[in-house]
Task: inverse folding
């Protein structure tokens, strides 16, 4: 089983490119839920992830409903409204698929997803001087926390 990053309607190509690069370097599958705010041929996306794009296991969905229908595992929502810190959740079971679901840069995750998976809503600590952390930074933090708990799985 594996770790998965799920981006709900990402808008900024450089964020997705950065996340793709981290996914390629850690064996993490990237799931993109449309509509995307860019073309995957976009120059900025290529600049951020160019040499790595072909190493990525990347899957596309036309809607969040389609994504949930076609995947199976444990879903975690990443949101500043989460009641638990991401470090309080146990990701150590490598027999499961762990799906880390991130919201859109401008509007986050829709209410129905927030309600359905409220028990697994996780927050990365921050103070009140900013509205939120950068999407690609949050994805990197989560991937490496999961890998740390899983013993890094052959990464060196
Ligand atoms: C730029 S933020 C979205 C901000 C949006 N206005 C909102 O209120 O959710 C993009 C995504 O990054 C993730 N994120 C940003 N800050 C976070 C935090 N402190 N804890 C967990 N996830 C965070 C969430 O998945 C969020 O949907």
Result:
């Amino acid at each position: 089983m594996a770790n998965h990053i799920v981006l709900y309607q990402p808008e900024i190509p450089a964020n997705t490119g950065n996340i793709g690069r981290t996914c390629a370097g850690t064996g993490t599958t990237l799931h993109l839920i449309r509509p995307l705010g860019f073309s995957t041929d976009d120059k900025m996306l290529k600049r951020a992830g160019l040499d790595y794009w072909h190493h990525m296991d990347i899957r596309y969905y036309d809607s969040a409903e389609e994504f949930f229908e076609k995947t199976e595992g444990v879903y975690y929502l990443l949101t500043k409204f989460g009641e638990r810190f991401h470090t309080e959740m146990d990701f150590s079971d490598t027999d499961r698929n762990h799906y880390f679901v991130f919201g859109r840069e401008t509007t986050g995750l829709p209410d129905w997803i927030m309600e359905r998976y409220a028990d697994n809503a996780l927050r990365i600590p921050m103070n009140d001087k900013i509205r939120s952390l950068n999407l690609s930074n949050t994805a990197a933090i989560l991937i490496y926390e999961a890998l740390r708990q899983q013993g890094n799985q052959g990464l060196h």
